[in-house]
Amino acid sequence: MPSTLHRSSAHMLGIRSKLSLGFGGLVAVMLAIILCAVNEFNDYSRQTERTIRDDLDSIIAARDMRDAMDEAADAAYESIRSDGPVDTKRIQTAQADFTEAMAVQRARITLPNEEALTATVQRDWGQMQPMLATLAGLSFAERGPFVRERYRPHLRAARVALRELAAVNTASIQSSQRSVQEGTQSTRRWLYGLALAGAGFAAVFATVVGRRIVKPIASLTASAERIAQGDLDYPLEVGGRDELGRLGGAFEQMTAELRRFRAIDADKLSRAHQAAQTAVDSLPDGVIMLNESGRIELANRSAARLFNVRAGEDIAQRTEPWLRDATGRAPGAFDSFAPSIEVNDGGSLRHFLPRPVALTNGDGRTVGTTLILADVTDFRRLDQLKDSLLSMASHELKTPLTSMRMILPLVLERKVGPLTDKQAELLGVTAEAVERMRRIVETILDLGRLASGKMPLHAVSLEPLALVGRAIASHSQAFENKGVDFGGATPVGLPPVHADAAQVDHVFANLLSNALRFTPPGGSVQISAAVVDGAVAFKVSDTGRGVDEAHVAHLFESFFRVPGQGSDTGTGLGLALVRQIVETHGGRVGVESMPGKGSTFWFTLPLAHTEALSHGH
Hints:
The protein has about 625 residues and is α+β, with helices and mostly antiparallel strands. It is built from 15 helices and 12 strands.
């Protein structure tokens, strides 16, 4: 097989050979054009340079001869204007300069009329030399007629000849420039012709390449795009035995392998999906799996039967608010059975508590959510029994506590007999314990009444600024006694809220007492309020010790106390009562805390006009 491939490769023209042949021809044409252009321009350059150099030298020599002639003439005219000796030294210098310039001119004679003009200039100059020598021996009176009648005619004739000599060389330079321009235009036309020929060759080559190379590449590209879209059955049409043909064959083989792997993976995926479906169907709790766009990908039988959900549905199209709320909450956000869902299952009421679990990929990115609907019917019943038992026990304790609160002051005031100091001290401690027990009992009873709806709310329209001001006025003295900065930052103009003033005071009292208890002297506690999502959010922020993240989700649970805070931190019912009061108003409650930095407890109350609209509906 390798020998056959070698023989077939030896007889075929590969892509490298095709490209080398085509681009080699283009390169050869371009090199030929460039070499011809360079040679032609070099010839014109040398010719022009030689011509211009000779003509310029002749023009410069003519100028130098004229300057030397004028210098000698100035000396002659000077001798006729003043009675003194002739400046022979000046005349000799001019003669030497003229001789040097004449030598340059005679060496640069290239034009037809240039020889005769040069001879004329040399003849006239030669005739003027004896006259200049004679001028030195004449008297002042004889010099004037001699210069004007004999010297001046030869001077004029020589000047005319020099002007003609310069004009001839100037005309030669201009003629050379015109000749160069004409040659350049001819060369340019010739180069244009070669460029057009090269362009035609390139067009032919591009057509051939397009048919032999570009078309298979385009076919491979289209096939790759269809494969990227998942179409592994797209036909590949690449012929030939060159590299592209072999690439097309390899591509076809790769596509066949991909089809085989896809079939294998589809079988594995089908088995995994069936196994997962069977596993979740066996669970008594409802299980709903959502992708990151909020579409249901899987729902077990319990979820489909009890909540009427199906795979492929978009939760945004569902009317049940609990489904959107549950998927929007963070894991661990449910700290009680309050958000449980009541379902009528064949005539019996069952309660399910939704708990979201985030699904992440290998990079830690969230790719979906699994919503587990845990059946908490029995737990809810036990919770209700616990609340009833607590309420009953608290109610039974309330009567003897009331009697003790009435009797102990009489005993302490010694109205029923004398007491020793030790007896009075012990009775005082007992009275404080009774009072603390009374507050616990009242709180438990309030929680029970709020949960059962037996504590009616006397809600009216209230100004947030007045609520905050009343809370500050009621507790400012306690903060001042401990040395904690206390104040509020509530903007004017907040819309009124619909709430029970006494219950809101109770909420502020619990939150502020907690902030005071856990904020050291020198710290700060601030109250603020703002409109958030159609409600007024109140915040109580402190700079106390803060709460670890692991305990934040449990702060509003009944009887929960943060571990390690000591026995003087309360019973764990105050924040549970806060949550019950706020949720009874239709608001929400939460906390943000960081150990060592402090905590911010917040709660929301509905706007008065929103509550009025809901009552109207």
